[in-house]
Each structure stands twice: as structure tokens, then as C-alpha cells.
Write a structure and sequence with these properties.
Shape: globular
Strand content: 5-15%
Distance between the termini: 20 Å
CATH superfamily: Winged helix-like DNA-binding domain superfamily/Winged helix DNA-binding domain
Helix content: over 70%
Strand order of the largest sheet: 1-2
CATH topology: Arc Repressor Mutant, subunit A
Largest sheet: 2 strands, antiparallel
């Protein structure tokens, strides 16, 4: 068995280390929202040729006003453009982000399936994990899957 640096529940990491970990989690949560939107917009454009705010809101289970607000943020961040009466389109940067998120999602789903998680649970759980897993961990997942 490999030695594991698992700490007991009563041992706290150093303050800067713990603060850094919590900070990374908060940043990931903020980015996860934008990632969900660009991934969905990309999928809607690929499948139906348009991504209307109404469709985005329904598919994400949010209010129309919430979708409009987040689409505004996507535009400010340079990830999307909205054309009057034509919906939302991704910029090159937005499409690149959507492709990265989609690839991360696929690796996480494949790992969960490889360890015996049923398909529906793997797809659902991957929606959260894909945004929070580090590139180092994701690479380890990919190496594990390649050994299979």
C-alpha cells in the first residue's frame, strides 16, 4: 500500500495554504457559471443553429432575467456577442472555452464510469467536478484512463 499524506480531521493546514485552497474554490465557482453558459450556448448553436436567451434560461433552470444578466457578463468578458432578434453567439475565445470545458467534462465522466458510477450519475456529478478539478488532477485522471 502507498503511504498517504492524509491528515486527521483535527489537523488544520497552515493559514496561507488553507486560504489559498478556499480562494481557488471561490474562483472556480465564479468561473463555473460562465463555463456552463458557454458550453450550453455552443451546444445549442451546434444542434439548432441558435441560442436564444429564453432557451438558455429554460435549459439551465434559471429565470429569463438571470440568463440576460449572465449573458451580459459573457459579453463584457469577451466570450459572447448578442445580436438583436438573433440570439447569442460565442466569440472565438468563448468557443475555445466551451471546447475546453467539454473535454474536461468528458474526462471526468469517463473516469466516473471507469470506477463503476452509473451513466446518469456520472453525467450529473461531472457537471460540478469538471469546474473544480485542477489541471494536475485532470491529467492524472487521463493517465489512469489510458492505462485501462
Amino acid at each position: 500500500m502507498v503511504d498517504s499524506p492524509i491528515r486527521s480531521a483535527s489537523t488544520l493546514p497552515e493559514e496561507p495554504t488553507q486560504a489559498s485552497r478556499f480562494g481557488k474554490a471561490r474562483t472556480a465557482q465564479s468561473g463555473a457559471l460562465l463555463e456552463d453558459y458557454v458550453e450550453l450556448i455552443s451546444d445549442l448553436l451546434a444542434n439548432g443553429g441558435e441560442a436564444r436567451p429564453t432557451d438558455i434560461a429554460r435549459r439551465l433552470g434559471v429565470a429569463h432575467a438571470t440568463a440576460i444578466k449572465t449573458i451580459g457578463r459573457l459579453k463584457r468578458e469577451g466570450l459572447a456577442v448578442a445580436k438583436p432578434y438573433r440570439g447569442v453567439f460565442l466569440t472565438e475565445t468563448g468557443e475555445s472555452l466551451a471546447a475546453r470545458v467539454r473535454a474536461r467534462h468528458r474526462v471526468v465522466v469517463d473516469l466516473l464510469l471507469a470506477v463503476g458510477v452509473p451513466f446518469e450519475a456520472a453525467e450529473s456529478d461531472a457537471e460540478g467536478i469538471e469546474h473544480h478539478v485542477s489541471d494536475t488532477t485532470l491529467a492524472a485522471f487521463a493517465r489512469f484512463l489510458a492505462r485501462g
